[in-house]
UniProtKB/TrEMBL annotation:
Its cofactor is pyridoxal 5'-phosphate. Belongs to the serine/threonine dehydratase family. Its EC number is 4.3.1.19. Residues 336-409 form the ACT domain. InterPro entries: ACT_dom (IPR002912), ACT_ThrD-II-like (IPR044561), Ser/Thr_Dehydratase (IPR050147), Ser/Thr_deHydtase_PyrdxlP-BS (IPR000634), Thr_deHydtase_catblc (IPR005789), TrpB-like_PALP (IPR001926), TrpB-like_PALP_sf (IPR036052). This is L-threonine dehydratase catabolic TdcB. Coiled coil: none annotated. Pathway: Amino-acid degradation; L-threonine degradation via propanoate pathway; propanoate from L-threonine: step 1/4. GO terms for molecular function: threonine deaminase activity.
């Protein structure tokens, strides 16, 4: 890699990305490009998914991790590597290390999902659970590196990582040469920077649009400030892009080459994950669904053909269950209601009869009859209903109100 005299930051070139592509031949899959008829209709132009959720380890992270570790000298390899991650980077480092014959230690938060912990161990890493949040886990990994001499493998802030992730951009141009816009999620920025570098070097006419979760959007204020700015307490269901501060190396590339960075809501992320599952039959984690969320939020603002990069598919089943319910609610297909009724025989049956008439499918009923908040003749009912969309939700509420019920939520 070369170094900029202006700011002494390492820079990444197209040759670096091409070198990474050769290095990854036979290691990383050339992932599929799948069309989305539903999104194509919304956008008014072809929309394709770049399915990095089908990559080995379930995300793009293997690409950068392998290139970074493969570039270590013999003495560094002998010392082993260490990483900190709640999931995708952990698995990428673990598999890359195993393929290269390097000992790896991965620190993960104590609350990391069990499937991700098990997968990281199965790929060959020693897993150490330490810290409640990723920042604490990161500090533990860096302390381990200082004490043992192991090489710390950063998840995004290194030129080798950026070059490895940039191979996704080369594949997109090969698989969809007519592309006009590429949409990709941004956390620390390694993937977006790599894609932008590779694509803009060959096709400066192609737009690259980054997407962040509203509650973890460090790039917009950083781009305004002209330097990486940390945000406090980033919060989003999309753990893969939940990063409080941009990386120095990717930030410069993104500032120079990415055309726009947008933000999306949690509701949009849930709806996007649900769409990927239902319409495309693809399991995608919330971070991986962020480009789809952006397309759903403002479909008319994208110039097609569009490629949306589905960055990963490693989602905990329990989280998936909650997200799907949230996504169904956001799409008007799941409705939670709380109301009070007179506590008398047949009252609950009468209520359910009203719901039956409007064809609302009752998933769950909670019937509370003894509570200090209730009057002597009152009962409270909480209902979880499967509905057919926003208009049907309004119809259900209207039917209940017309029947004399006061809907509380």
């Amino acid at each position: 890699m070369s170094y900029s005299t202006a700011d002494s930051l390492p820079t990444v070139t197209l040759d670096d990305v091409r070198g990474a592509q050769k290095m990854l031949s036979g290691i990383a899959r050339i992932t599929a490009m799948e069309g989305s008829r539903h999104l194509s209709q919304l956008v008014g132009a072809p929309v394709h998914f770049k399915c990095e959720n089908l990559q080995r380890t379930g995300s793009f992270k293997l690409r950068g991790a392998y290139v970074r570790i493969a570039g270590l000298i013999a003495e560094e390899r002998a010392a082993g590597v260490v990483a900190a991650s709640a999931g995708n980077h952990a698995q990428g480092v673990a598999l890359a290390s195993s393929l290269l014959g390097v000992r790896s230690t991965v620190f993960m938060p104590s609350g990391a999902p069990l499937p991700k912990i098990a997968a990281t161990r199965e790929y060959g890493a020693e897993v150490r659970l330490q810290g409640q949040v990723v920042d604490e886990t990161l500090a533990a990994a860096q302390e381990y590196a200082r004490e043992t001499g192991a090489v710390f493998i950063h998840p995004f802030d290194h030129p080798d990582i950026v070059a490895g992730q940039g191979t996704v951009g080369l594949e997109i141009l090969e698989q969809c040469p007519e592309v006009r816009t590429i949409v990709v999620g941004i956390g620390g920025g390694g993937l977006a920077a790599g894609i932008a570098l590779a694509v803009k070097s060959l096709r400066p006419d192609v737009k690259v649009i980054g997407v962040q979760a509203e509650g973890a959007a460090a790039y917009p204020p950083s781009l305004v400030a002209g330097r990486p700015v940390a945000i406090e307490n980033p919060s989003t269901m999309a753990d893969g892009i939940k990063v409080g501060r941009p990386g120095d190396v990717p930030f410069k590339i993104i500032g120079d080459l990415v055309d726009e960075v947008r933000t999306v809501s949690e509701d949009a992320l849930s709806s996007a994950l649900l769409l990927c599952l239902e319409r495309a039959k693809l399991v995608v984690e919330p971070a991986g669904a962020s480009p789809v969320a952006a397309l759903l939020s403002e479909p008319e603002s994208f110039e097609g053909p569009v490629v949306a990069v589905l960055t990963g598919g490693n989602v905990d089943p329990l989280l998936m269950q909650r997200i799907l319910r949230h996504g169904m609610a956001a799409a008007g297909r799941y409705l939670s209601l709380r109301l009070r009724l007179t506590d008398r025989p047949g009252a609950l049956a009468t209520l359910l009869g009203v719901l039956s008439v409007v064809d609302a499918n009752v998933l769950d009923v909670s019937h509370v009859r003894t509570d200090p908040r209730l009057g002597l003749t009152e009962a409270e009912v909480e209902l979880h209903l499967e509905t057919k969309g926003p208009e049907h939700c309004a119809e259900v509420r209207g039917a209940l109100q017309e029947a004399g019920y006061t809907v509380m939520t």
